[in-house]
Design goal:
The chain has 210 residues and is mainly α. It is 55% helix and 6% strand. It has a single domain, classed as Translation machinery-associated protein 16-like (de novo design (two linked rop proteins), Up-down Bundle).
């Protein structure tokens, strides 16, 4: 079992997609593929099935060659799904970690108005980074164009959620759930122990169904 701790780097030259840095994809893929290979090899040994040896394949259109290709395609598809799932989980974990790190230690119980303020702060978390990107020289702006577009899309999407159907956040209105969030060590495997709720701006401002 691999334990993954959520972390965030504020360097401007780190391009992030879905909460994962691009340069970590190769490592992540190797971990997942090696894990799949080891599990499959173990299962084949238990079932008494011989592992297909590519060196024994004499023709690319042979039955064994096609069997080998189909197997590798399935393994690659499973690996891609694992990577996508991990990226989504890591992105969500990064979001919950932000709320944990931005809790006021002097507040024992949050009110709906306090939650609105915290969410507004969350929606403006990229303000400093955007200011840095805008201040770079014109010939360097192309370098940060993809990062700028990603931030803009994220802000627009999350703002629309907050004003519409609601944005998912940890339940900090509940004192017991708030304490669990404070005790969370940042590991993704313990994320399931936290209570996540969806609130919109109108709901919090009017204290409806809280």
């Amino acid at each position: 079992m691999v334990c993954v701790r959520v972390c965030r780097h504020n360097k401007i030259d780190n391009v992030v997609l879905g909460g994962c840095e691009i340069n970590s994809f190769a490592i992540l893929e190797l971990i997942i593929i090696s894990s799949l290979d080891s599990k499959k090899e173990s299962r084949l040994k238990k079932e008494g099935k011989a592992k297909l040896n590519i060196s024994k394949i004499k023709h690319p259109d042979s039955r064994k060659a096609q069997q080998f290709i189909r197997r590798k395609k399935k393994e690659a598809t499973r690996a891609r799904k694992k990577i996508t799932q991990f990226m989504k989980l890591n992105s969500f974990g990064e979001k919950i970690l932000w709320f944990k790190n931005n809790l006021d230690p002097n507040i024992q119980e949050y009110s709906p108005s306090m939650v609105v303020e915290l969410i507004q702060k969350y929606l403006h978390r990229f303000s400093e980074e955007m200011s840095i990107i805008k201040s770079v020289k014109s010939y360097e702006k192309l370098k940060y164009a993809s990062r700028k577009d990603l931030i803009r899309h994220t802000i627009e999407s999350e703002t629309e959620e907050f004003n519409g159907c609601g944005i998912e956040i940890p339940d900090i209105l509940n004192k017991e759930h708030l304490e669990k969030l404070r005790k969370w060590n940042g590991e993704l495997r313990y994320l399931q122990n936290l209570t996540i709720v969806r609130y919109n701006k109108k709901q919090l401002e009017n204290n409806v169904n809280l």
